[in-house]
Specification:
The complex is a heterodimer of chains A (about 775) and B (about 180). Chain A is of the alpha+beta class and about 775 residues long. In chain A, about 20% of the residues lie in helices and about 30% in strands. In chain A, the strands form 8 sheets. An 8-stranded mixed β-sheet of chain A has the order 8-7-12-5-4-18-21-20. In chain A, strands 25, 26, 27, 28, 29, 30 and 31 form a 7-stranded mixed β-sheet that branches. Chain A has a 6-stranded mixed β-sheet with strand order 9-36-10-11-6-37. In chain A, strand 7 and strand 8 form a beta hairpin. The radius of gyration of chain A is 29 Å and the shape is globular. Chain A starts with a helix and ends in a 19-residue tail after the last strand. In chain B, the strands form 2 sheets. Chain B has a 4-stranded antiparallel β-sheet. Chain B has a 4-stranded antiparallel β-sheet with strand order 4-5-2-7. The chains are: A alpha+beta (about 775), B alpha+beta (about 180).
Chain lengths: ~775, ~180
């Protein structure tokens, strides 16, 4: 009996063990088959193999002491900061790589594990400095080249930027690139080139475009997505780039040129500077520069994170820029060609201090080319040129196209203001002493302030404020510009050094909350690189606190945040100037002092005469003051396309207490170029959509972009403004990229095999003159 | 004897359990996977007969009662057949898209001698098709039912204008057909 019991128990144990194994086997198989995300789908005729290796929380075992992550095995290189992995040790693309992650790493990789959609998940990079011979090595990146082709006609420019992505790895990748464009760029065309085929992208609501892109990506289609993070920062994603294949993305935008101190200025930014994202609320122990800059303690994820190459997710921000470390270099380079047509006027004195250029002249047209030796995209390209003769005059250019009639009015201050007497000034200099200003930028800014202080007159007053993690000042109120006080100011200036974060909001509050002497014109000058991620908060505070103050912002550095600087000047009803590397900060401050010493033309009003202007569609809504040497551009819309002969507008303003008037003639541009093959007048109405090479499209896009900026700025001061709907609706109607719209393109002709691969962020150069060590946190 | 019994019992139970376990329903091979979203190309053809086609403006209308069709890309036409005239993607009207309409236009500045005549593919659209009826009617994941519900949208073209190089109107037929898939 006892033996029979043993027999039965043994049999049951063996049977149960066998049964358990048998039940687990199909479960494992099922798990593999269902590993792809829930949205993964297949077409009716497709029987592609199931994807494997995508992180799925449902099949990720977790323990208390270790965290397991399953990564897809693709690359030649494995994320390792110090060593090149032996390719022979790597799993094949069909195998899976399991990495045991220690608890200490869990916090900073939380964002990484949270979503596959966040760029840079999984890195294909390796460090490249050869310690033995201390030489630089190039890093394979999925962006090979950027080509810029610009055309300038008058003060309107049309620029096409072609980004050449490729896949140097042996598995499929998704390339992610965060890049800059001018803040007033009206992006209205997006084209993806796959081999010899060209696909025009479609403007969509951002959420819809992202859904389409993600779906196409997960189904294996080549797709691309262009989104706007800030008016001057954009993200390009290209999915399912197969090994060895290339995909080009061409982006076209219109913009207006600035006219600064007698010269037109064309600017093309090449790299996004490292942004600091102030925490919304700081815990008591949050005083670490590293944590502040990383933004890891902020409650907001809406900033632009600055992280080292491969450190995806460590900033805690949704948008991140990965920076190459000192000594690292990517093969990504840039070329730039610009064609300038001054419309019959002779172009005079072309200068480019930022880059080495070569130019070729053909009558009133000049072609400019960036020299190949200067092809590293690590600073703004800034080209200035003037016109022969008496300089520019106020002008209004109007044109009619398929979206109605739009105009652009350039208002040039009258020369007579130069001869008027000087008002007493109240000058407040606010100096950014954060880590990103370390070195030459801070030195340039201090030289500029010193120069300005030495030009003050005894009737003026001044004050100095510095800010980094906090703000402090030379004194609690503006000081009379006596020799003793000037010496005190210069001594204070010499003590300032740069370190820490960019709590600009503290500088704003300190500067704008000073008691104001109404007998003086008050100017607040910010000297900064503008490397912050909370621009909206800054602009909102300026609008709330501005009062009678005028803000003049000075962008210091090679790749300044021009969106912030220009916006501060606009909402601060002042002006902006840029001091790049190699520029004479003293020359620029001299021009600034000259400008503010002369009375501006204020309280502007415009009589549109017989021009059928829709007054509700003129931007900026609040007309700015006109300072000497700084024309302003106003964009508007006409109620109909009538172009009365001899029409003129009259601008009236106050200079030194007297009312003055400027009369501006109206130039109506022909809707269609004469050398065009198609349409004649008989067919014009039928072919209204055709993209004719005239200024009507440019004026319409520039107007829409200006209106979007105006709505966004209004929303920073008044949260009741429903900016999202207004901007989205306008951008969709005009086919414009915006914060709430995006371009998406899908090549649905061919479906690539396998999973969509690993996301690879394009690491970028640190802007010229900016120190990596003081701007990008390194996690050890 | 006892050992034989033990072995026999073990084998019997194991065989029974294995047989039972393999009778558990297994995942169906992925011959057809239910899907609510797919992508497709639409080829646009123009037939201007003997007239050289230099420009066109058309509206493409998708009819799909059980779902929606979204434009996700616009591509040029057959390069060889159009002699390169319509190789570049046509432009679309973004304002029309906001009203769920697809309006396309293209022109060429080629010499009249190099303009396409007859029937040529002048563009290709890339669309996303989202079926809604299939999912709603298929809570039990019935593949056959899903297969029935997912039908193809139908497309037609409304001609707004077609013209010669000198801008004069011509008569041309346009057609939209689901394209090939590689």
């Amino acid at each position: 009996m006892k033996r029979w019991n043993i027999v039965l128990v043994s049999g049951l144990i063996v049977g149960l063990f066998t049964a358990t194994i048998a039940m687990l086997l199909p479960a494992c198989g099922s798990s593999r088959g269902s590993a792809p995300s829930a949205r993964s789908t297949m077409s009716e005729s497709s029987s592609r193999p199931a994807r494997s290796g995508i992180i799925n929380p449902n099949d990720t075992p977790q323990e208390k002491s270790v965290e397991w992550r399953r990564l897809h095995a693709l690359p030649d290189y494995v994320q390792n900061r110090t060593a090149l992995a032996d390719p022979s040790c790597l799993p094949s693309r069909d195998e899976e790589l399991w990495i045991i992650q220690r608890p200490g790493e869990a916090a900073r990789s939380r964002a990484r594990a949270a979503s596959d959609d966040i760029p840079g998940g999984g890195s294909l990079m390796t460090t490249t400095r050869d310690a033995a011979d201390n030489t630089d090595k190039q890093i394979p990146v999925p962006l090979r080249h950027t080509d810029v082709h610009g055309s300038i006609n008058g003060y309107l420019s049309s620029v096409t930027v072609t980004q050449q992505f490729h896949n140097p790895f042996n598995g499929k990748i998704e390339a992610v690139y965060v890049f800059p464009l001018p803040e007033n760029a009206a992006v209205n065309d997006f084209v993806m080139k796959v081999g010899d085929r060209t696909i025009r992208g479609i403007i969509r609501e951002r959420e819809q475009a992202e859904q389409i892109y993600n779906e196409a990506r997960s189904q294996g289609y080549v797709a691309s997505l262009l989104t706007e993070e800030r008016p001057n920062i954009f993200t390009q994603k290209v999915a399912n780039i197969e090994p060895g294949k290339s995909i080009d993305i061409a982006i076209t935008y219109y913009s207006t040129l600035a006219y600064v101190d007698g010269a037109y200025e064309f600017v093309f930014p090449m790299v996004v500077g490292p942004r600091f994202n102030p925490p919304a609320t700081l815990p008591a122990d949050a005083d670490s520069d590293r944590d502040l800059r990383a933004g890891s303690i902020t409650g907001s994820r809406d900033g632009i994170g600055a992280v080292s190459r491969g450190a995806h997710g460590s900033s805690g921000q949704i948008s991140e820029v990965q920076y190459l470390r000192p000594g690292e270099r990517s093969g990504h380079d840039i070329s730039l060609v610009l064609s300038i047509d001054a419309g019959g006027a002779l172009i005079d004195n072309i200068t480019c201090k930022s880059h080495v250029i070569e130019s070729r002249r053909d009558g009133s047209r000049v072609d400019v080319r960036l020299r190949p030796l200067d092809a590293v995209p690590n600073k703004d390209f800034v080209l200035r040129y003037s016109l022969a003769g008496d300089g520019v005059r106020s002008a209004l250019l109007a044109a009619t196209g398929e979206r109605g009639s739009h105009f652009s009015l350039m208002l040039v201050p009258p020369d007579e203001s130069k001869n008027l007497r000087r008002h007493p000034l109240e000058l407040v200099f606010v100096l950014d002493c954060s880590g990103s200003m370390n070195g030459e930028p801070l030195a340039q800014a201090k030289r500029a302030i010193e120069r300005a202080l030495r030009q003050l007159q005894p009737t003026d007053t001044f004050q100095l404020i510095r800010f980094s993690n906090n703000a402090d000042s030379l004194g609690p109120a503006p000081l009379p510009a006596t020799p003793d006080n000037i010496r005190r100011g210069l001594a204070y200036l010499r003590t300032l050094s740069s370190e820490g974060g960019t709590m600009m909001i503290e500088g704003i509050k300190a500067a704008l909350d000073f008691p104001h002497d109404p007998a003086r014109l008050r100017f607040v000058s910010f000297l900064t690189d503008g490397y912050i991620g909370n621009e909206a908060e800054i602009l909102g505070q300026i609008q709330h606190r501005l009062g009678p103050t005028r803000i003049f912002s000075f962008g210091v550095g090679s790749s300044v945040n021009r969106y912030l600087m220009d916006s501060m000047a606009r909402v601060g009803r002042g002006g902006v100037a840029y001091v790049a590397q190699g520029d004479s900060s003293t020359d620029i401050i001299d021009a600034f002092m000259e400008r503010i010493s002369r009375p501006a033309m204020t309280d502007l009003s415009i009589d549109w005469g017989s021009l059928p202007v829709d007054a509700s569609e003129v931007f900026p809504r609040r007309l700015p003051d006109l300072f000497a040497g700084r024309p302003v551009v106003i964009a508007g819309k006409l109620m109909n396309s009538s172009s009365p002969d001899g029409a003129a507008v009259r601008i009236t303003g106050t200079i030194n207490g007297e009312r003055r008037t400027i009369t501006v003639p109206v130039q109506f541009s022909s809707a269609h170029a004469s050398n065009h093959a198609v349409p004649t007048s008989a067919a014009e109405s039928s072919f209204a959509l055709l993209p004719l090479p005239d200024s009507s499209a440019a004026l319409a896009m520039v107007w829409a972009r200006r209106k979007i900026a105006d709505i966004a700025e209004a929303a920073t001061a008044d949260t009741a403004v429903n900016a999202t709907d207004l901007i989205r609706s306008l951008a969709l109607r005009y086919g414009l990229l915006s914060r709430y719209t995006a371009f998406v393109a899908v090549d649905s002709l061919t479906r690539t095999e396998g999973s969509f691969g690993t996301s690879v962020a394009v690491p970028v150069n640190m802007p010229d003159g900016v120190k990596y060590e003081t701007t990008v946190p390194e996690y050890k | 004897m006892i050992y034989k019994l033990i072995i026999s019992a073990s084998l019997f139970i194991s065989t029974f359990v294995l047989a039972t376990s393999t009778s558990v329903p297994q995942p169906v091979p992925a011959v057809f996977t239910p899907t609510s979203i797919r992508f497709q190309t639409i080829d646009l053809y123009a037939d201007s007969e003997d007239e050289p086609l230099a420009a066109y403006q058309i509206e493409v209308i998708a009819e799909f009662p059980s779902g929606s069709v979204s434009l996700v890309g616009v591509e040029g036409g057959d390069h060889a057949a159009t002699k390169g005239a319509f190789a570049q993607p046509p432009v679309y009207d973004p304002d029309a898209l906001t009203h769920s309409r697809i309006i396309l236009a293209a022109y060429t500045s080629c010499d009249a001698a190099n303009l396409p005549i007859g029937r040529v593919r002048i563009a290709r659209l890339h669309v996303q098709i989202e079926s809604t009826a299939g999912n709603a009617a298929n809570p039990a994941n019935d593949l056959n039912q899903e297969r029935k519900n997912i039908t193809n949208p139908t497309y037609r073209v409304r001609v707004i204008a077609a013209g010669r190089a000198d801008g004069t109107r011509i008569t041309a037929d346009f057609e939209a057909l689901p394209g090939e898939h590689r």
